[in-house]
Amino acid sequence: xxxxxIVKARPQFTVDVRIRLARGERLAIFGASGAGKSTVLSxxxxxxxxxxxxxxxxxxxxxxxxxxxHRRPLAYMTQRDLLFPHLSVAxxxxxxxxxxxxxxxxxxxxxLRERLRLGPVWESSAGKVSxxxxxxxxxxxxxxxRPSLVLLDEPFASLDRPLIGELTQALLEWQRRLGFSIxxxxxxxxxxxxxxxxxxxxxxxSVVQEGDWNEISSSPATPLVERLLAPH
Length: 232
Prior knowledge:
The chain is α/β, with parallel strands linked by helices. It has helices spanning 37-45, 89-94, 105-115, 131-144, 161-178, 189-193, 213-218, 223-229, and strands at 2-9, 14-21, 26-30, 52-57, 60-63, 74-77, 149-153, 181-186, 198-203, 206-212. The protein has a domain at 1-71 and 182-232: P-loop containing nucleotide triphosphate hydrolases (Rossmann fold), CATH 3.40.50.
């Protein structure tokens, strides 16, 4: 489904990563802060343009040339909620939907609202909800268009463990039902292991190891990987 070769120069190194992802597959990108993980997601999402390489999602060419953001059938959730504070929670969730009343969109939005417990704040200004509620709103907006690919860039940073568990469970329930693929980035292996069975490990922009978590944990490729996997 996703076939990507991303080359992007950074001040201290060049990110050079290849990813192949089947439909419905869940892949973690693991590594230390500053290793180039977010650069990979940003290039797939279209927020940055690779220096070279190629990105294809199904039959759709994302690069080259760089495809417009609104034409990419994917969703991107980062550490920041990036909600529109002047709009209501409902308007934020529905933002980007062409028609609420076609293709079962209204029923789907209702499900997101109820499953993520957004009913009490549905008509409230997004700028006035709590941090945990804002994360729920961001997830609902991410899934509202029913994307074929979901990109997660440390979306659970600064959240408490119960809320992380709740959001992760909801995300995986919808992933199994809708069949979208997931690429998740984090520097915390326990968060990634809860979401993705397969992992690639990046150091200084290059992939140093790939496999399932048992393979990575039993035989870390580098001392840095071993340190990152050590219990904290």
